[in-house]
């Protein structure tokens, strides 16, 4: 595991974008696993700039996102599909039909999970998975639990996750309580993992995840078993 500490969110974002751009340059038809949340916003802005400058071509890239809120469709401005379209996909030359986000509005989220796992398998898996980390150690929406879940599945969001994500909604009551998330299998089978985290409040959970015991109560701790993980952290 490589743990890179930098002194600003701006530098973290540029480094993360450089690593993703390098992946696309080395393998133009790669599969990128993508995340939402506040952490990747700067990374996505840097990737958009690289694309506009003609330094990276996303036209052969396929993307698979980690998760989506249950019950929100892509027209809802709080959905992760909307987030991705707004913050990245509309700003780079990726083919819209090659961008995938789990369907949080599927009638049966279990079947949607199976469909999503088959899709990822049919693409040959993920070349580089970008992750953030929740204050409770979640990756994707894999919340602390008694076991790790392999497949893409429906989850009940942890109260601390609802609290943390309330900043994006009009009120805490508007935050969906359920979501669908990629499971640990697709994440752990990604050839490379890039986890980004910023803010002093992420320090403790990073320490638990990467220096503590591997336990489903700290979902990100499973990454200790992956052979190619890069973490970029900035306290500011
Ligand atoms: C979002 C996701 C989540 C976030 C995590 C950190 O797609 O998978 O695991 O990465 O909640 O969120 P931020 O970056 O907002 O602190």
| Strand/helix succession | EHEHEEHEHEEHEHEHE
Category from helices, strands and their pairing = alpha/beta
Number of strands: 10
**Which CATH class applies here?**
Alpha Beta
How many angstroms separate the termini?
Answer: 22 Å
Q: Which fold name is given in CATH as the topology?
A: Rossmann fold
The gyration radius over C-alpha positions equals: 16 Å
Q: Give the helix proportion (percent range).
A: 25-40%
Q: Are there runs of 5+ residues with pLDDT below 50, and where? A: none
Provide mean pLDDT, rounded.
97
Ligands, deduplicated = fructose -6-phosphate
Envelope shape: globular
Spatial strand sequence of the major β-sheet = 1-10-9-6-2-3-5
Largest sheet: 7 strands, parallel
| CATH architecture assignment | 3-Layer(aba) Sandwich
Total tally of structural domains: 1
Q: What is the count of DSSP helices, taking H or I runs of 4+ residues?
A: 7
Taken as a percent bin, the fraction of beta residues is 15-25%
> So what's the oligomer here?
single chain
Entry keywords:
binds fructose -6-phosphate, alpha/beta, 10 strands, 236 residues, Rossmann fold, 7 helices, 3-stranded antiparallel β-sheet, 7-stranded parallel β-sheet, globular
Report on this model:
There is one protein chain. The protein is built from seven helices and ten strands. By secondary structure, it is of the alpha/beta class. The protein has one domain (2-234): Rossmann fold. Strand 9 (192-198), helix 7 (203-211) and strand 10 form a beta-alpha-beta unit. The chain is globular, with a radius of gyration of 16 Å. The model has no long low-confidence stretch (mean pLDDT 97). It binds fructose -6-phosphate.
């Amino acid at each position: 595991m490589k743990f890179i500490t930098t002194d600003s969110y701006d530098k973290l974002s540029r480094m993360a974008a450089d690593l993703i751009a390098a992946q696309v340059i080395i393998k133009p038809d790669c599969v990128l696993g993508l995340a939402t949340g506040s952490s990747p916003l700067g990374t996505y802005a840097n990737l958009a700039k690289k694309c506009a400058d003609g330094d990276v071509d996303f036209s052969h890239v396929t993307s698979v996102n980690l998760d989506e809120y249950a019950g929100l469709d892509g027209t809802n401005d709080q959905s992760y599909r909307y987030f991705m379209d707004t913050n990245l996909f509309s700003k780079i030359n990726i083919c819209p039909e090659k961008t995938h986000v789990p369907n949080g509005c599927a009638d049966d989220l279990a079947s949607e999970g199976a469909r999503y796992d088959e899709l990822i398998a049919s693409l040959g898996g993920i070349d580089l998975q970008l992750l953030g980390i929740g204050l409770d150690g979640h990756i994707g929406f894999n919340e602390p639990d008694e076991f790790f879940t392999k497949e893409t599945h429906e989850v009940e969001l942890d109260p601390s996750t609802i609290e943390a994500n309330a900043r994006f909604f009009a009120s805490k009551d508007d935050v969906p309580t359920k979501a669908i998330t990629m499971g640990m299998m697709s994440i752990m089978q990604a050839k490379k993992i890039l986890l980004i985290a910023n803010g002093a409040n992420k320090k403790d959970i990073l320490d638990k995840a990467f220096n503590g015991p591997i336990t489903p109560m700290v979902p990100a701790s499973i990454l200790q078993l992956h052979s190619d993980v890069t973490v970029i952290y900035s306290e500011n």
